[in-house]
Design goal:
Length: 155
């Protein structure tokens, strides 16, 4: 199962109103539960093997910290949003510099951050061009699907 398939599945579940979904195919098992705050908690995901049990992932307790919504005066800016739920990282490692800083110019296809989901580190590329004016999320914090990450001033 590819990341795009998982994103589509989570988007479908979010719009369906279901609180729990279990999917099993010949290749894998996926179990997704929504917590009280409406956030998805990956209960389990494992490739199916002959005798391999599916272990439950640790449950997340409490709500994720809220990210302030862009203000009305920020309407002239474009937004780079998270394409998935996971943990937001500004750099490729603790000893590496951030992919982008405030004031940096980005173009479509440039990596701006990493979102870690289910032990997979996904490079998030900008779909827009412009200059970064604001980082809306703290490093190493949880993000939701479609949550604004950066404000970009079009050039």
């Amino acid at each position: 199962m590819e990341i795009k398939d998982i994103q589509k599945l989570l988007d479908f579940i979010a719009h369906s109103g279901l609180d729990e979904v279990n999917i099993e195919t010949g290749e894998f098992k996926v179990s997704v539960k929504r917590n009280a705050a409406g956030q998805f908690v990956p209960a389990s995901f494992a490739p199916v093997a002959a005798s391999a049990p599916v272990a439950a992932a640790p449950q997340v307790s409490g709500a994720a910290p809220a990210t302030p919504a862009p203000k009305a005066d920020d309407s002239k800016y474009l937004t780079i949003k998270s394409p998935m739920i996971g943990t937001f990282y500004r750099s490729g490692g603790p000893d590496k510099s951030s992919f982008v800083e405030i004031g940096d110019e980005v173009t479509a296809g440039k990596v701006v951050c990493i979102v870690e989901a289910m032990k997979l580190f996904n490079e998030i590329e900008s779909e827009i061009s412009g200059r970064v004016v604001k980082v809306l999320v703290e490093n190493a914090t949880p993000v939701e699907y479609d949550q604004p990450l950066f404000l970009v001033e079009p050039i």
